[in-house]
Amino acid sequence: MLSFNFLRLTLFGFLVFCGTLRVHAQSDATTASGKPNLKEDYPKSIKESLAKKRIETEQKEFEELLARGEEVAKLSFELEKSFAQNNSLSAEDEKKLNRVEKLVKKIRSEIGAEGVGDDEFGAVEPEEKPSNILNAFQSLESATGKLVAELKKQTRHSISVVAIQSSNVMLKVVRFIRFRKN
């Protein structure tokens, strides 16, 4: 009985050892993150299809970035128009203002400004500091126009300081509106 248990334990240990070798042999082709090692020679067709897929993904992300910019422009126009008519912010306008802020923050992170404060590009202020909320909405729309124009000029591989500065101005104006609302 004792020899049977010893034999079973030895066989189990041998299987674990062989399994470890097999896993180790399979992991040699990948990096620590589990992604394929790109230094290994893949067939040309696979390399081309991976590159094509990466380009398609980058293009789709860039188009989404432009769509976010267009949505911010539309929302800022609607906000200015609504405030000019009502001289106050409705609950729906508050939601739009929050959406503008959220979209601008997402755009900033996608264009490479994530974690970049205003002081790294100098103190960026609106062209004219808004004296009231209506001027702030006009400033917001102006900054949005600059941001969208700059996003359309750049490529998916570039980082635009002007776009980052415009987004910083927009965030400051949104905060101004939020704290000065009626």
Summarize the SSE layout with pairings.
Elements: H1 2-27, H2 44-86, H3 91-110, H4 133-153, H5 161-180
Helix pairs in contact: 2-3, 2-4, 3-5, 4-5
3D architecture notes:
- This protein has one domain.
- Helix content is 71%, strand content 0%.
- The chain contains 5 helices and no strands.
- Helix 2 runs antiparallel to helix 3, helix 2 runs antiparallel to helix 4 and helix 4 runs antiparallel to helix 5.
Gist?
The chain has 182 residues and is mainly α.
Strand pairing plus helix content: what structural class?
mainly alpha
Number of domains: 1
> How many DSSP-defined strands?
0
* Number of continuous helical runs: 5
Element order, helices and strands? Answer: HHHHH
Query: How can the largest sheet be summarized?
Result: none
First-residue to last-residue Cα separation: 88 Å
Report the sheet-strand fraction: under 5%
Regions with little confidence, pLDDT below 50 for 5+ residues: 118-123
Write out key terms for the chains shown:
0% strand, 182 residues, mainly alpha
